[in-house]
Amino acid sequence: MPNDFATHTALIWLAAAVLLGVAELLVPGVFLVFLAIAAAIVAAATLALPDLPVAAQIGVFGMWSVVTVLIGRRWYQDYPVETSDPLLNDRARRLVGETVVVADPIVSGRGRVRVGDGEWPAAGPDAPIGTRMRIVSVTAGIVQVEPA
């Protein structure tokens, strides 16, 4: 009987792995695949160790989930995904080179500039309201500007 239970439990873990893998394909986020791998490892462990209690299986799943996520994270740091727009999710770096208008005068090196439909704190040479400036960098949420 324990062998039937182990086979049944392994099939449940294998089904969970397949469902997590399919969910990753439907809603790509590069996260569920690592949980799917962990579930597949638990399925193999359940077949190899038929007397493994359910609590231990859940613990092994948790441990392998952490391990696979950390391995995946390291993998994507070492081998980043190529993209046609490397600044896609880096709004601050996308601003470099933009021409902006001073919204609050820049006095003693500090003021505000209009960026699109919003305003950002700015640092740069003194300038009155309405002066056109160019963003040269963004540091800690403050745009560094110079005359356009």
Task: Describe the protein's architecture and organization.
With 148 residues, the protein is of the alpha+beta class. The protein folds into 2 domains: 2-78, no CATH class; 91-147, OB fold (Dihydrolipoamide Acetyltransferase, E2P) (Beta Barrel). Helix content is 49%, strand content 24%. It contains 4 helices and 5 strands; from the N terminus they run ααααβββββ. The chain has a 5-stranded mixed beta barrel. A hairpin with a 2-residue loop joins strand 2 and strand 3. The protein is rod-shaped and about 80 Å long. The N and C termini lie far apart (80 Å). Its main location: membrane. Keywords: Membrane, Transmembrane, Transmembrane helix. It comes from Sphingomonas jeddahensis. It is a multi-pass membrane protein. This is Inner membrane protein YbbJ.
